Amino acid sequence: MTEKRSSMFAVIGASSVGTMIEWYDFYIFGSLATLISTKFFPSGNETLAFLSTLATFAAGFIVRPFGALFFGRLGDLIGRKYTFMVTLLLMGGATFLIGCIPSYESIGIISPLLVLLLRLLQGLALGGEYGGAATYVAEHAEPKKRGFMTSWIQTTATAGLIVSLLVITITRSSMSKEAFEDYGWRIPFLASAVMIYVSYIIRKNMHESPLFAKAKSEGKTSKNPLKESFGNRYNLKYVLLALLGVAMGQGVIWYTGQFYAMSFIERVMHVPKEQVDQILIWALCLGTPFFILFGWLSDKVGRKWIMMAGMLVAICSYRYIYDQMYQKADVSRKELVSEEEIELGHIQRTYEDGTVEKWEEGANGEKLHRTVALSGADQRSLIFWVFVQVIFVTMVYGPIAAFLVEMFPVRIRYTSMSLPYHVGNGIFGGLLPAIATFLVTRGEEINAKAGKVLVQKPYLEGLWYPIVIAGICLVIGVIYLDENESN
User: Fold this and answer.
1) Are residues 335 and 323 in the same domain?
2) Residue pLDDT, tens place only, 239-261
3) For 402-461, how does the pLDDT look when each residue is reduced to its tens digit (9 = 90+)?
4) Domains: count for the chain
5) Do 26 and 49 sit in the same domain of this protein?
């Protein structure tokens, strides 16, 4: 029993480390989006450059379903292990090369085109990685412990984001601001090569999934996984239910609670990047164990209603949470202590609670660049609110790997579960930061053009996207998903 348990955790460890590194690779780009927008896109319009960067970031998500189809088919034909070995190397190579691309100033339009190409390769790789890792672990686990065992894979996306933020923070603190913005931002991308090599060595010694190996030895593997997955009406029904009843809602909850929260604090609240990273790191570290908790709980009480409950509480509370977050950086609510010109055109205001507002003033008195460094109490408050959102994420995301795996038979499992997961996350979730940022910008522009408030609290406009998508998913999931339909 001890040997079997040790073997199971070796499987989980080898799978999780590799998947975590792939998420790290994928999310470095998003974590550095504001800085990258100044390197790979034309200068002159900061908002347009940032939106272009988010669009490039989203492109990696959009192609994830194609990676799911391509690598899912390979996984159901030749095996889980060898397929996600390939995805690991593809992801690592693309990430390393992004760190090598010259800036827009050096090579012009070729720079953003190369970034886009490598982001597409990253998306293809990730489309094959997650389904392979989740299926591999699930097929090693006892059915009654599948939620708990696969929940470790669920931590890897958040762990990858945490590691990316830590590496960026350590790199930034080890050099001057000018050096980091000049060349230091490339180091997290280049460091990926070392991580990928270590993970490759670990994975090379893994054995094939026992369920797949058994099916292959008995000649029961699929000869055409794509046709069986999507050409069979019965199986296609489950693919669509997996997408519309859980995956797309999980996708927008995940990206709202982590990536949109980061973008909102930095871009809408104007909090300095260093503070944003600290807030996210603390909130994510505090929240990550709950993936395991809800995965374990799903083995006891069922998976469906935990996921549905996560969507419901998120939908009902997002606008309140983000309004509370926004108020922490609203200096109109704070008592001014001092105002001084720290250098020509650069103004600094200090408030009674310790908040420090800085901005660069233009010729007509407009604030060209503004930051609001929060007090310790306000930082702790933001950590709490992001942590609450991470709890929503863990409720929906913790049980989902086991839930999706159990919906489909072994012979077409890799293909069938990967597509709805990556459409839900890659398209519905991946587009969220760009769409939400656009909606906020649009609300602000409407008010500016009208010269009066037509859109109340425009900073909350971006939340309509995840609320509507998760709401649709919740209704479909509650009505049509059946806990007992899992295979």
Assistant:
1) no
2) 999 999 999 999 999 989 988 99
3) 999 888 888 888 888 888 988 888 789 878 877 888 888 888 888 888 887 788 888 899
4) 2
5) yes
Q: In whole numbers, what is the pLDDT of the chain averaged over residues? A: 85
| Cβ within 8 Å of residue 353, ≥6 positions away | 334, 335, 375, 377, 378
pLDDT at 365 over 80: no
432 lies in the same domain as 359: no
Q: What is the residue range of 359's domain? A: 331-371
Rounded CA gap, 283 and 249, in Å?
A: 21
Asked if 81 and 206 touch (Cβ cutoff 8 Å), the reply is yes
How much is the CA Rg of the chain, to the nearest whole Å?
A: 23
Average pLDDT (262-275) is 90
Distance CA 372, CA 385 (A): 18
Q: Is 193 exposed, middle or buried (0-12, 13-18, 19+ CB in 10 A)?
A: middle
Which residues, at least 6 apart from 363, have a Cβ–Cβ distance to it below 8 Å? none
Residue 368 is encoded by which pair of tokens? 């060209």
Mean pLDDT of 30-43: 77
